Amino acid sequence: MNEFNLIERLHNRGLISYITNEDNLSKLIQNNSISLYCGFDPTDESLHIGHLLPLITLKRFQMAGHRPIILIGGATSLIGDPSFKDKERIFNTNKNINIWTEKISKQISCFLDFNCGENSALLLNNNTWFNKINILSFLRDVGKYFSINTMINRAAVKQRITRPDQGISFTEFSYNLLQAYDFFILNKQYEVDLQIGGSDQWGNISSGMHLINRRSKKAAYGLTVPLLIQSNGVKFGKTESGTIWLDANKTSPYRFYQFWMNIEDSNVYYFLKLFTFIKTSEINKREQKKYIDNQIINDKSFLAKNITQLVHGKEKLLAVERITEFLFSKNITNIEEADFQQLKQDGIPFIEIDNIKDLQEALVLTSLAESRTQAKNMIISNSISINTKKIRKNHIFNNQDKLFGKFTLLSRGKKQHSLLCW
Length: 422
Fold this sequence. Notes:
Layout: H1 6-12, E1 18-19, H2 22-31, E2 35-40, H3 52-63, E3 67-72, H4 94-109, E4 122-125, H5 127-130, H6 135-141, H7 148-152, H8 155-161, H9 170-173, H10 175-190, E5 192-198, H11 202-216, E6 221-225, E7 238-239, E8 242-243, H12 253-261, H13 268-275, H14 280-288, H15 295-312, H16 314-328, H17 337-347, E9 350-352, H18 359-365, H19 372-380, E10 384-386, E11 389-390, E12 407-412, E13 416-421
């Protein structure tokens, strides 16, 4: 069916961590249109950027003519996946899970095409089948195919068992069987041949392939994408100030964009291969020129713009570009009121005020200066700006300083900013 080896392309982009029966899967994909799936448990109201790689990989398969299926874990999220977790998750209520399911489903719909013919994406919820099964049937028809010895020796479980302070509950231990049953049902009812996920899902995916082979005597396949770890050992997408969410109300598009602008230089071209759809040959050419005229900064900006548009859309990207131009190029011409709301959300520090004596007091209140004396010296040294305009003497605020009647941007040098919200 396909004119290229998709698996080879995924390898070239660094998108494959583990894969089963690679030769057979490559032949299957090249000669047939297959169905594949990835599961997402709604354990919060938003996905985060750690979920991007599986979503983008699903999109790559769809672009190659295959049918992606998203499985929302409405049932499994009631338990929570223990894979490589230090302790048991906090149980969520059915009400929260239902709300989160709706929000996450809308997020995912932006990445895949649900109306493109035979390979249109499909969104399912595993509550559909788990609500109909009883515990005795499950233990008899599923549990008997699994060895406790094998399950205990899985890395994700062993990590918890060897910790006397935590251990693992039977509830969490059963999660592996639940996800295996998901794969079995999808293979049986929707002819799903392949499950993808993060590399921490390898044990769960393997269990699903095992169950399909034992019960249906069919071959099934698994593929995992890498989990990205930053140089400080923190999982990619988690920062000192919190997780980078895909929901614009939890992480503003501006902060989302700045996260990508601040990645380590060593990751720029690797991430271009992982998160964008430009050809690897083009990325390699860019990398060869990275030290010419500071090209790497332009490529980092290219990466940030691509991913911001993919997640938040063109309109939000344009807002981010206006804010960036306002803060760093001192161009106030195109700034909009909604852009300040982004900045207030989590773009830069801000304070709510009704009245203020003068600029020196404002600098102290915003922590741009430690004292009025220091504030005075900074003003005299020409390092303070109000709405991008340099201020050379102490200043009493007036209505002209209040953009849209609400906002005043204070800046110390080029990179330290604070927002006054009147």
